[in-house]
Design goal:
alpha/beta, 8-stranded mixed sheet, 264 residues
């Protein structure tokens, strides 16, 4: 049975979008944690960003180890939140290309649905330009795979778009906040791993190659701090300041109500 619709919490959506906007050169990916209700509606409350072992412009892969880790994390969150949470979907980005899933995406989604028929896929298309307004455009869709072949014949999968609803939230949950904080660490680990591979791929490298690899690695880390760590820190500081103002306003309201109660 397919999912009837998907409800994506706003803070989980923010984490996915931040991850998708972290690079425009390759696709990024992650897993969604949530639950399915009796009406076959999927509720996504948190996400887990995954580190890429191999950066590709048009391909992402999730290892069995990452799925196992995500399942353990879902169990931990289920205990923490008192809800029957599990790994319920995956997401990945489409930088500079259409939001629609490729034939590889559709087949990948079908393989996940063999394990869980409620499993859904999200695609975030970013770094595109609206042709009419010439402004940046971000699109997101939710999909599943549907086998269109008659019974007994080789499967032929097609995408099935699932209605997606973003649920507003006034706060950012701790799991989503932890995921945001983890993002710069994940990206820096990917750069470090790529640098280590470049250093070890050739036994005896000349001095110019060593210096070049080191310079590229340093430039990548500086770019990461410029476009991700700095803005993320500023965003979190702004949110902290806004929350402090809310707390002060609520405290003033509390004192006012207390005085009104005393006069009655």
């Amino acid at each position: 049975m397919t999912a009837s619709c998907v409800y994506l919490a706003a803070d989980a959506y923010m984490v996915c979008l931040t991850h998708a906007l972290s690079t425009e050169r390759e696709e990024v990916m992650g897993l969604c944690i949530g639950e399915i209700d009796t009406n076959r509606a999927v509720h996504i409350v948190s996400v887990i960003m995954l580190r890429r072992s191999d950066k590709r412009k048009d391909r992402v892969e999730i290892s069995p180890e990452q799925l196992s880790f995500a399942a353990s994390e879902a169990e931990r969150l289920a205990t923490l939140m008192g809800r029957p949470l599990r790994v319920i979907g995956w997401y990945h980005s489409h930088p500079h290309i259409t939001v629609w899933p490729s034939h590889v995406d559709v087949r990948t989604q079908a393989s996940y649905q063999l394990l869980d028929d409620g499993f859904v896929g999200l695609i975030f298309s970013c770094f595109n330009e609206d042709k009419s307004s010439k402004q940046g455009q971000i699109q997101v869709i939710c999909f599943q795979s549907c086998n269109q072949s008659p019974e007994g014949e080789a499967p032929m999968y097609e995408r099935l778009e699932i209605p997606l609803h973003i649920i507003p939230k006034d706060t950012v949950s701790k799991p989503c906040l932890d995921a945001l904080v983890e993002l710069p660490k994940i990206l820096s680990q990917e750069e470090e791993e790529a640098y280590s591979k470049a250093q070890n791929c050739v036994g005896d490298q000349d001095l110019l190659t060593v210096v070049h690899n080191g310079a590229v690695y340093t430039k990548s880390l500086c770019h990461l701090m410029d476009v991700m760590s700095g803005p993320l820190m500023q965003s979190l500081e702004n949110r902290l300041e806004r929350n402090q103002r809310k707390m002060e306003a609520l405290q003033m309201k509390k004192e006012q109500l207390h005085k009104e109660l005393q006069t009655k």
